[in-house]
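Ticket opened by: R.M.
Priority: normal
Category: complex prediction / small molecule

The reporter submitted a protein together with zinc ion and asked that the result be attached to this ticket for the collaborator who will pick it up next week. Submitted input follows.
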Amino acid sequence: MTSTTAKSIAALKDEMIEWRHHIHAHPETAFEEKLTTEYIIEKLKSFGITELYTDFAPTGVVGVIQGKNKGRTIGLRSDIDALDIVEENKIDYCSKIPGKMHACGHDGHTATLLGAAKYLSANRDFSGTVVVIFQPAEENEGGGRVMVENGLFEKFPIEAVYGMHNQPNLELNHFLINHGPVMASYDVFEIKITGVGAHAAAPHLGKDTILTATHIVNNLQTIVSRNLNPTDSLVVSVTQIHSGDTWNVLPQHAVIRGTVRALSTEDQYLAEERIKHISIGTALTFCTKAEVDYQRRYPATINHTKQADIAIKVAQKIVGNDKVIIDSPPTMGSEDFAFMLQKVPGVYIKIGAGKGTNVHNPSYNFNDEILTTGVEYFVEIVNQELGN
Ligand SMILES: [Zn+2]
Ligand SMILES: [Zn+2]
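Result attached by the on-call engineer:
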């Protein structure tokens, strides 16, 4: 990156902070990001980006920036949604929407991609096309999946897609970049157990659903310890058991719910199969019946090697080799950028936000000191991918 480029990006900082604070004050959640989308469109138009699309999801927007010369197409993606959290920060741009808050920093991600869009629109000395993707509903509803299903990658011949997330308590403006898995899949399951209700004083006349449920919970713990390759990572967590209403009745029904996190499709499918077999088999032991509803929600976020290498090169160029952490252990949280990575090659990286409150906490706030680093990263990605 030339010093002129770095200077032009640094000059965007105050404006980006203003955008970020505006978005922070007006948080909107899954597929309700109407004002946010309007705000993004207004900004993109003011940058001279006129090719805009809003038809890949109920909210969100996609903008197209053509370079001076013809060439390949790449995508840069930001999530734009907030969370259902009551903000506890005492700041002058605090959330104005009751019960909603930008507690994951997607306000900052949006401002970063807007900054990159503004720079790239004014400096089109690249060969090809940059598609900026402002994606809604990352947190729960899989807006990334919806955009993919609605033909985002059929409409644009995107050859590589780049996403990023801020990370509190990773040193300020350090990068964390992985080859392969970076975040886990996210699935949920529900096991309905049906037995025969009875008087608690006459258990021999019933088929006990609570006893069945507790054995199923225990047996599910053998998936990780006995079925999983010991060098892999997998989480099977039971998070709810519901049954019974009083002291002297063996209830006829019980429900178990929980979640599975895996770092590969193979392990995700292994967990699904074993949960079904164990539940049904354990219920048989106690003459009850188990029905399993397993829902695959988000796949694992798995980076592609070529794009991870490009991201590493770019990050090292911007902040220096010592501030780029490569191939650290993945986290077991999940991210719907995974759907985009299933469709086209790409990479999802993290930028250190320095010491502070972690995401999804009512006192979290995005660190404005990483805004320009994010823009430098995106701009240099374009330079590497589409540079003359
Ligand atoms: Zn989040
Ligand atoms: Zn997030």
